[in-house]
Amino acid sequence: MERIVATVLVVCCAGAAFADSYSLTIVTDKGVAITAPQEWSRRLANAGISSVRIRSGRPGDQADIEETPLATGTLYRVTGVLTSGGKLALPGESFTIGQTAKLRDYLDRVLADGAQAMTAERGRYGLTKEQFEHAFTELGKPIRFSTKGKPLGALVDKLSAETGVSVTIDPLVAPTLSRLTCRDELQSLSYGCGLAIALKAEGLAMAPEKPRGKPVQAAIRLAGDIDDAWPIGWPTKARGTELAPKMFEKINVEIDGFSLQEAVDAIGLRIEMPVLWDHAALDAKRIDPAEVQVKLPRANMAYHRILSRLLFQARLRGEVRVDESGTTFYWIYR
Fold first, then answer.
1. Burial class for 256, CB neighbours closer than 10 Å (0-12, 13-18, 19+)
2. In total, how many domains does the chain have?
3. Rounded distance, CA 278 to CA 255, Å?
4. 62 — phi, psi (to 5°)?
5. Would you indicate the residue range of the signal peptide (predicted)?
6. Segment 97-110, tens digit of pLDDT
7. Which of 48, 124, 164, 271 is the most buried (most CB within 10 A)?
8. Are residues 138 and 191 in the same domain?
């Protein structure tokens, strides 16, 4: 059976003098029903894609997207293959004849984000490697002002202003966020890690997302509404002695008559890194470090062992973590 090609040209002008456009070429494989091109043409027209022209196929046709700069914008030449199984294969996705609305959405995304966005491999948060690396770098910029007791909204505003990553806040969250203050001193940590800590304390979370036709942005929502929140700390290949050498220094110690908060605060001054608490976890278990009395018999031990022994008395744990820029901090959690 002779191969047949249907070509559709759609121009999205929206009243603008400068506009991108796309052409869609559907190449039929062997075994495709002879009536298929006419049926696809009809369905495309019903979906708002008109001016379908049927012509003979050409050797070498395959799924592809070519970008051609024009005086009035960019022309995206999209080629798809209609298989004998009835699916239209386009770069990155495939569609059945009952999914013409999704096909139109696909073409709209081509116009909004370009050909590369349709074919690039995507990883965490649905971002391409380049998009994730850009977000990671920008969110790795340091917080340069004191945060404890300051409005949480100020930290959000600073992130947007100093990193270039715009922030969107769930309308259900915005009124609450405007009334909250930051519980911790996060100065010197990165914006990404610092904001993740501040938000978690209030039952909120942040995750990067890529809206159509826009740069990657940070979305703030209720923690339960985000499946993969921006993490508090990142994996590192550094060994403990390299990452936090002070934690392995031994001292003579004996603790009695002090609260967990007092003991940890005193150690925090010596280990040369911020000590931060998972307030949400503590609140959930009604653990108040200022009310938990701790003891430690006289001994000679390293700081990391001292902290571990003290935190265990409140059924807590702690570990050294690193933010996006490699700054270390001690995270206490349950």
1. exposed
2. 3
3. 24
4. -155, 165
5. 1-19
6. 999 999 999 999 99
7. 271
8. yes
